[in-house]
Amino acid sequence: MHRTIATFMVAASLASAAEAQTSPPPGLPAATTSSQATPAFSLDAALGAAGMPSASRTTATDTTTGGAASGPGGSTQSALPSIGAATANVAAATAARRVAGLRPNPELQTQVENIGGSGAYRGVRSSETTVGVALPLELGGKRPARVALATARLTRAQIQAEIARADLRLRVTQLYIEAAAAERRSEVLGEQAGIANNALRIARERVQAGDVGPIEMQRAEVLRINAQIAADSATRQAQAARANLETLLNAAVTGPLDRAWFERIDGYGPQRPVEIEGTLALVAAQADVRTADAQVRVARSLRVPDLTVSAFARRLAATNDTAAVVGLSIPLPFFNNGSAFVAQSQAEQTQAQALRSLAIVDTRQQIASAQTEVANAAATARAAGGPGLAAAQEAARIARIGWTQGKFDQIALLDAERTLSQTRQTYVDALAAYHDAQARLDRLTTPAPTISGDER
What we know:
- By secondary structure, the protein is an alpha+beta fold.
- It is built from twelve helices and six strands.
- The chain has helices spanning 2-21, 33-37, 43-49, 74-79, 81-100, 142-209, 214-249, 259-263, 280-301, 339-385, 387-404, 410-444; strands at residues 64-65, 107-113, 128-137, 307-316, 321-329, 450-451.
- The strands form two sheets. The protein has a four-stranded antiparallel sheet, with no helix packed on it. Strands 1-6 form a two-stranded parallel sheet.
- A hairpin with a 4-residue loop joins strand 4 and strand 5 (321-329).
């Protein structure tokens, strides 16, 4: 009689617990009351802390970049090494362009001749003092070629600054995904630890009632220990992931992460062709080609010798007369006529063109792979979080009640609990893989901005 009463009480307890556990719509553990009351720390908030715009995906290409990299959250960006380095690189390229447009400085020259000699040239009685100015004249279009090269390098630096921002956005997003996934795994394994504790309590009561042997209590104890170890490990991993995100943002991450965003899977149909001509990777490769072209132009202009024109006034101390002296100098390119530099620049030009072709192939392959990963992860998440998770939850619920009533053995219960835990973790992993693949796809298809720096 006592055994029957105990069995019905345990069954009722497990049935109510199972009903509460299966109530959340997607099947993951429900958020706690305190976490529901605290506003979620969203991905947009994380990107804002890093000085990035909203995480909403856009396809506009009207972003402009000036001579120096700047953007929202300037004080935050200055604290981020990647953005700070890109900003400094643009500032250096801007200064280099101003330097490239400067003309050669004239030279002031002074000479005193016929002094300190012997005879009539003793002392300074027969000295000749010459004072004048020498002006170098650049020929062959050196200055325009130099300015064109500096402009191409400035454009490349501005594009690199946008690449640094896109890479930072990807890194922040991936760390956020990692932290959100670790938080969900911690919740799943924490609930499994609670279920294992409850199973141990029931096993102990059944052993005391004489319904089962002590071996079932030992199995339940092993299950509880393993579940608690896994839950503690998941908690530490969640804490580490959140700490990594805080380290990158250099700001505190308060409150729970955005659960609704993490569990949302956008609709995804057939793969759409992506136009790669305006992506950052290809625009950067094209900028490298333009830089190499400008370098060839500079090398060819250097083959033309420059002239130096000079005008002097000479005073003859012996007669106290003054005479004008005009000079013209031109280097003789006997040993270095610039052909080697032209050959080097042309080889670098060929290399840049080949790398551009390679960038086209690589970008297309990476986009296709990312699109496939997004579709596969979305399908896995829908299956694991929908029918698969519902079936695993129902099987675990039935196994718990059946084991309590003595209809199932403990092996069936353990197998059902293990299947439920694996299904939940598969769902979390699929969600993390989906968001990671989507973030990488967004990075690959990020449109390059319209560069509007100094006048060309």
